[in-house]
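Progress report, Aim 2. The chain analyzed during this reporting quarter is listed below.
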Amino acid sequence: MAWLFHRIKAPVLFFSGIVLLVCLWGSGSIPGLAQLDSEPTSGLLADGVRLLSSGQLMEAAKVFDTAKQRDPHDARPYFYRGVALSQAGHMEDAAAELAEAVYMAPDRLEYRVFQAHLFEQHKQTFEAENTLAIFHQERTLRQLAPAWLRLLADVYYRLEKTDEALRALDLWAESDPNDARIDLYRGQVYVIKGQPDKALKFFQDSLAKSDQDPQAYFEMGKILYEMNQLAAAKEALIRAVAGNERNPEYRSKLASVYAAMGEPDAAIDCLKSVESAGDQFPTIFYVLGRAYRMKGDSAHNSKYMEKFQRATAAGRDRQAQLQATDQPIAQARRQMDQGHTAEARALFKKALGVDPNRWEPHAELAEMDLNSGNLQEAYPHLQKLEQIDPDSAVGNFLLARYWFQQKEYLRARVYAEKVRVSRPANSELRGLLGDIYLQLGEKQKAREEYEEAVRLAPNRSDLRERLLKVMGDGPHLNESSKP
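Predicted structure tokens for the chain:
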């Protein structure tokens, strides 16, 4: 969205004083400590962080909103609220909060790392890589605390930039060479580099430093299984399951080893507690079917093989739908960056043809239509945005613009004031509110909004002109204007 993201042109997540949990490299939630230089110890921000760390996400978001009202120019509540919203699944608004935080505090490198993390989660690879460009210089990279180096390495890993991931891990190792997780993550990098022997050595090094991480046993067990070292793989995977008994991925891999070693009863017993996860991990059904076939039980073999086929087909369908929507959205954004609006519009519509409930294309198309004055085309997209997420600041801003252009100023005011709670430092919003108040005859409120807008964006001549008009009691804003 232009008003939120083009400034930058550029899993469970929670903080506990601050503790950052990130879903690292597809292997589950792994904790890492991230101390911010200006971490709050008292007041509203501290209250919000405590709510965030206890999992009360939307309550925390409300507290951070209040903090923004008290000091609209403090980047920290924007950052924290972005973390809370990302954990709650409101990824678009989370990205907008991070965009504001980075805009207001461009020197806070940890904000950029987290923003790149969100871009990658959105499959916005170009934006993620562009955000991380600042870390190409080692001098800048060295300014990050170890926990942020860890998240940075994770983002690089998911972008398949393995050399950059290793560089971040090497810097982390300089400050804490005995941290077993560094070797674990190095091993995972070498897995995707296609060097299993080197990966196995790093997993072994990790366990030599600490034998308490089930993930390291699991990674090692997978490689040993592929090398057909079944006894060693079994031992490693038993340790992995012992450390995380309810993990269906760990259990399905251990059951595969049991089946390969001719132990069908052990394989079946291993999977009993996680059979319900078979739709997400179809290997569970496959191994169960294989184990029953080994026992001569054709009925159960057929039952589980049918489940396996249905689950894998459903998974392929889900992946195909996701790819069929992600790909045109990414292509459309590239077309927009190049100024090819018509091509971008066609691609966004193509994405909606695959998934009519996808939020991003509706928002982008609504903004395009509002910019061109095509209100009739914009409204269905705006209705869908409100249906999908009625609390979205992005959606409510677009609705405020729509009702303003329809000259329904009271309705526009409701949406714009709702957005101001979470975006008090956005100059475009404050300018729009000034326009709305002016049309409602509330000149003092309009002046206050224009003054704040000019203070936030002193280089915007259009905002200064609006302020001068209301200060001089000049002619009202042209009602046909499109903020």
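DSSP finds 26 helices and two strands in the chain. Strands lie at 19-23, 29-33. These observations will guide the mutagenesis work planned for the next reporting period.
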